[in-house]
Amino acid sequence: MDILQLSHYLDNLLGIKEVKDSPNAMNGLQVQNTGDIKKVGLAVDLCMATIEKAIAVDCNMMFVHHGMLWGGVKPIRGNFYDKVSTMMRENLGLYSAHLPLDMHPVLGNNKALADQLELYELEPFGEYGGQKIGIKGRLDRISAEGLRVKLEDKLGSPIKVIGSGEVQTIGIVSGGAADILTQAAEAGLNAYLTGEGSNHHYHEAIESQCMLILAGHYATETGGVKSVGKHLEEQFGIKAEFLDYPTGI
To answer: Hey, where are the domains in the chain?
Structure first.
């Protein structure tokens, strides 16, 4: 299976054309290559470090959450040239899925987080662009501190909890989606989990009495690429390897 065939499959699997994303996001195939896909490198971010990691472990395609093309048309020079030229020289293809990967009901980042927290009674949650991009659900009653410890164990990264009390209902939107805290509070949820926020979200959480859990932009978005890699291995026997390059943010 070459990259065009695999990209067509991924487009359909992830609903690339149906999902409304950020104005500058380009989902789908970003860099074509030649030959059959033998091994896929899975990464949260496309950067020179993950490109080099992919090459070092003999990947000929990368599947990432944050791709290379974001800001519209721009000249191929500087760091951008370095990435493009390296990928072309090494015959390394690139496929990117942003919101389609966040919100996928089976393979998505939010579903991975929900599974790690053992949520049940799952429902779509968190409106963005006229669509629900997150998940909400219930979990066995747990204290704020207990939930923090559980998440740190699952994600392997520091967790900041703003608020106190017990949690039985929670909304989740991975990445940088703290603005959706308002929707969580309006829905009467005990807590809202995302990756990162701004200073004003602290006050919003306290005043709305909806606990805000910041688990890291990077850490909350590793689950989706891993799930897609596992799916490709099971469906097509294509090898996949997660290329961990945490930002700490």
So the answer is: 3-98+223-242, 109-221
